[in-house]
Amino acid sequence: MVQINFARKEINCKIVYYGPGLSGKTTSLEVVHQRTPQGHKGELTSISTDGDRTLFFDFMPLDLGTIAGMKVKFHLYTVPGQVYYNSTRKLVLLGADGIIFVADSTPGRMDDNQQSMDNLRENLTEMGRDLNKIPLVIQYNKRDLPNPIAVAELEGKLNPNKVPTFETSARTGEGVFQALKAISALVLEDINSSDKKGSMGVAARKPAAAPAAGAPAAAPARPVAQNVPAAAARSSVGVMPQKEPGSVLRPSGRPAMAPAASGTAVAARDPAPVAARQRTREPVAVAEAPSRPAAPARQTMSQSRNALHHQMRQVQQQRVRREEPADAAPAHAPVQQKSSGGGVKMAFFMVLGILAGAAAAVAAVKFLFKF
Amino acid sequence: MSKDSELRESRLVFYRNDLGKIDRVLQEFVRLSGSSSVLLVDKEGHMITRAGKVPSFDQDTISALVAGSFSATREMAHLLGEQEFSALYHQGERDNIQLSLVGDRTILTVIFDDSTTLGMVRLYVTETVRKLEDLFTDILKSQKDGTNPDIEELSDMSESAKDTLDALFDGN
After folding, report:
1. CA-nearest residue of chain B to A77?
2. A251 touches chain B (CB under 8 A)
3. Among residues A93, A136, A138, A130, which one has the least CA distance to residue A234?
4. Across all residues in chain B, what is the average pLDDT?
5. Which CATH class is domain A3-201+220-234?
6. What Rg do the C-alpha atoms of chain A give, in angstroms?
7. Residues 6 or more apart from B66 whose CB is under 8 A from it?
8. Residue B13 to residue A198, Cβ atoms within 8 A
9. Which residue in chain A has the smallest CA separation from B32?
10. Chain A contacts of B165, Cβ < 8 Å?
């Protein structure tokens, strides 16, 4: 979707090259990149396979310049054309403001072109959008090949609404810029014709994927020079549903995300200043809000961890209590041992004293009887 | 057109004062978390605003790739029965990127090196996301009830558009 940034004086739009595989979408973008003057283009980025088939998308920012005081920037994307990459194609198509359909003029590829156009219509319908209301131009590519499919046949099968068409050769670059110029004009016209105030749906929750109930089934004929989408389709204002307590970041029922959990861990480990640690409390509280399924599990772990710490502390206290008498005994035992050892020695010395006294008495008696 | 379609089709509009408030929140985040830079990107891959060091890489390209990365992982989330993964982390040898969903349409892209930690960044990301969501709610409310003093209208681009497109595309 168009992003209008009055503060930066910018308008950002998304243009998507769509079409069957090998029809020349990437080559067209490469031509645009090669021929755009420096200062108006960014890098050309490709997410492709080893065989240079587009895997996700090719991307190139294009700066159109300043228009009515606003810097207009286009983001040009290509989709992977191969049939089995439809989910990727839908991702790239999401939010497109304009589409360049690149049809392959090679004989025998008419069915592929038609299938791709049908696929484009279906994917847009799935997103709640209507191909008839989106700026669209068609490149009939590979016109330089011998015996290409007749333009009348391509026109009859691919362009019922008579949108602008261009005979191109992406290989030589012929007509590619004209197609881009046409889609640029249509997109800018579309921006102006839509509600000028626009809306700000930033905080709006994701709506359920459902086709637009009000989208017209039959495509009204669209004159080439009057490609003006319905203004009302884009002038809506995003609705911000009431926030649910404890589910600030996502719809209720979604598990809490990993960052919050790490945040908890960091809060415990990080030697942050007190002020910083105090700030951690709030996010942690959000992360452990009761409405999230993962939160109770984390609380249970926390509780069990606390209980374990408590039990360990009790065991340590009991051990200390049990060990207290044993610890006390060595402190007093030496005294007891000293006293008992001293008694034996005293008795020993007393016996020695007695024996010595007796011996002295006997010697004294013998000495008296001599005289 | 159904209400859902209207929601999907509503364009993003940011006025001067609104972006000033957003910038202040981002600048505070950079200061507290020690990140190199932070970009606020919409889901279509357009950058809304940024704070911190001027990055050496192409900001438009990184914004588009961030949006693409988020879109791709959303498909993975669907396969797992989740509606969306609200955060992504890309780790490099020197620089890392932390992506977090803000509201439903914008992505907070934080680029940081080893001068801070992932835990620190995530800690402040959580707080910043909440602040931004509150801010978006206020901005939306002021736009809806017409109390936003900064509401501007686009000038008619048809005249100058023709000249600009001619100058850029003709001759190629």
Report:
1. B64
2. yes
3. A130
4. 87
5. alpha beta
6. 44
7. B39, B41, B45, B97, B99, B107, B109
8. yes
9. A276
10. 64, 181, 184-185
Q: What b/e sequence results for B77-107 when a residue is b if at least 16 CB atoms lie within 10 Å of its CB, and e otherwise?
A: eeeeebebbbbbbeeeeeebbbbbbbbbbbb
Phi, psi of A227 (to 5 degrees): -85, 80
Question: What residue segments make up the domains of chain A, in order of their start?
Answer: 3-201+220-234, 255-322
Beta strands in chain B (DSSP E): 12-14, 37-42, 47-52, 87-91, 96-102, 106-112
Note the pLDDT of residue A84: 84
Q: Residue B46: its chain A contacts at CB < 8 A?
A: 3, 12, 14, 73, 75
Q: What is the pLDDT of residues B56-69, one digit of tens each?
A: 888 999 999 999 99
pLDDT at res. B161: 82
Q: How far is CA A73 from the centre of its chain?
A: 25
Amino acid B99: pLDDT:
96
| pLDDT tens digits, A118-150 | 999 999 999 999 999 999 999 999 999 999 999
Residue B6, class by beta-carbon neighbours within 10 Å (0-12 exposed, 13-18 middle, 19+ buried)?
buried
Q: Check if A261 contacts B (Cβ < 8 Å).
A: no
pLDDT digits (tens, 9 = 90+) for B84-128: 899 999 999 999 999 999 998 899 999 999 999 999 999 999 999
Confidence of residue A272 (pLDDT cuts 50, 70, 90): very low
B residues 47-106 lying closer than 8 A (beta carbon) to A: 47-49, 58, 60-61, 64-65, 68, 71-72, 74-75, 82-87, 98, 100-106
Q: Please state the pTM of the whole predicted model.
A: 0.66
> Is the pLDDT at A231 greater than 70, yes or no?
no
pLDDT at A305: 45
Q: What is the mean pLDDT of chain A?
A: 70
Give the span between the Cα atoms of B5 and A42, in whole angstroms.
32
Single-letter code of the amino acid located at A220: P
Nearest CA in chain B to A65: B164
Residue of B71, B139, B156 with shortest CB distance to A192: B156
Token digits of residue A71: 């810097």
The answer to whether the CB of B59 falls within 8 A of the CB of B37 is no
Question: Looking at the predicted structure, is the pLDDT value of residue A192 above 50?
Answer: yes
Q: Is A358 a residue whose pLDDT tops 90?
A: no
Q: What type of residue is B152?
A: E
Say if the Cβ atoms of A250 and B83 lie within 8 Å: yes
Q: Is B11 helix (H, G, I), strand (E, B) or coil?
A: coil
Q: Is A213 exposed, middle or buried (0-12, 13-18, 19+ CB in 10 A)?
A: exposed
Q: Report how far residue A121's alpha carbon sits from residue A99's, in angstroms, rounded to the nearest whole number.
A: 11
How many angstroms separate the CA of residue A315 from the nearest CA in chain B? 34
Name the 3-class secondary structure at B115: coil
> B172: pLDDT confidence band, cut at 50, 70 and 90?
low
Interface of A with B in 10-49 (CB under 8 A): 11-12, 14, 35-37, 40, 42-43, 45, 47
CATH topology of domain B11-169: Beta-Lactamase (3.30.450)
